[in-house]
Amino acid sequence: MHDGVGNRLTDTFDLEAELVDLDEREQARLVTCLAPSLGPGRARLRLHARLRSDGRVDTDWVGGDSDHPDLERWARDAITFTYLHPLRDAARDLRPGRDNRLIALLGSLAPEGDADRALIEKIAEDANEALAQVGALQSAKSRIQDRLDGLTGRGKLGQRTDLAFAEPQFARVVAALRALAGSVSPLEIGENGLGYNNLLYMAVLLSALAEETDAELRLLLVEEPEAHLHPQLQDLLMRYLENTGQDGTQVIVTSHSPNFASAARVERMTVMARPSHDGTVVARTPAEFDLSAVQLGHLRRFLDVTKSSLLFARGVILVEGIAEQLLVPALASCMGRPLSRSGVAVINIGGVAFPPFAKLFGPEKLPFHCAIVSDADPSDSTEDEASGSDPGLSPRAAALLDHTSDSVLVTLASRTLEWDLVAAGNWDACLRALASVKPRVAEALAEEHAGSADDQRADALLLKVSDVKGRFAQELVAVVEAGADVIVPEYLVDAIRWVTPDQDPEGATDSDGDG
Predict the structure, then answer these.
(1) Would you kindly state where each structural domain of the chain is located, as residue ranges?
(2) What's this model's pTM, rounded to 2 decimal places?
(3) Tens digits of per-residue pLDDT, 203-222?
């Protein structure tokens, strides 16, 4: 195990499995692993590994509350696992040969003494006998033998040749089988795509795992199964693996794919994160974030491929809509703080349902900074002032401020994004963007408000872009990327600084200006 800069932290490593809801038969098998401290019907099994000075690794198995070292082989074999490494070569592992993965599957389906095993051997024997009667094959065998005799002679160095299918022994016959797959008709592995070959490989392994009936728990450990799979197949594979975990096989998957994360149930996910550049990796499980069933359901529905990228980010800005999602990265670059450099994701939640997302972040949750960017939505009613509430904030916006914490910053526009952009002094840039969407309107606004104050201009522009906010944002991004001078509204400056602390210059203060 290493820290963020590659220094070894420890020479030991423990892997622990806790088994729950064991019936009487299972408890008897795991008697040396029973752990009453965990509760009735529970067991603990731990593998302790030590790195020796010569680079080799020693391992010990212990079990139960007292770390009992004398585990019966029967107890250890109660848990079996298969590991699929990320750079697997499905074509190699499924091609004919003694390492063919089909051997384990067919061996479990046709054990020693089974009639099917004898039948397979008989078919191979009959095929070899029939093959030996073919004239062309007899001639080929004779010619090869003649030339071999000429090379080695017929003495002690001589060799006998033959041409046949696999020797009629079960293991050799099965090792010669080829796994085929194809969308129209089964194809050779070499003729198929890498993604489909990986799926075929996993199907063979899952089939073999299902036949290991002696194990109480079968583990399938899959690293980055998304390799070579297009998004739709990733989604189908994730859902299949989740269902597979219900038949005595537990599946543990590691992935960097937002497609995979969006297909999985949020309560089943664990996020591996490094809180700081040189910190230790921690594991965080959203199911333990004190989210209500309603909030978990909301996340389950809304963590689609784009939103689930927050699980892989080093910082997150949550925004209301597409306009903010398009503009915030461009404005951050204007400030000299490109979000990609800090691993920041801008997540459009498609509305104002921020609370479930805000509860994902904290020192004991996802240990990164999150900025929530929303509108103040000020009320024009005098009733708010009479009741003592802030007339500059809607009740929703005021409630949103309650989510501010050491990990979450809530920043609110004075009114809304487009209004605040003009009020900050970006009239000319906004008119150029509007001219690409509504050229006549932009020309009229330029003439009508040539001498108006910024807030009046902001009111006028907001009225004209209310029905084209997405298109206006796209054009404004183009204006910004073309090099226009842009003043970033203060509430966005605060949000961008919050999620990019690693880009703070030496000795910077809150009064330092950006952009």
Answers:
(1) 12-77, 90-212, 267-419+490-503, 425-481
(2) 0.71
(3) 777 776 666 566 677 788 88
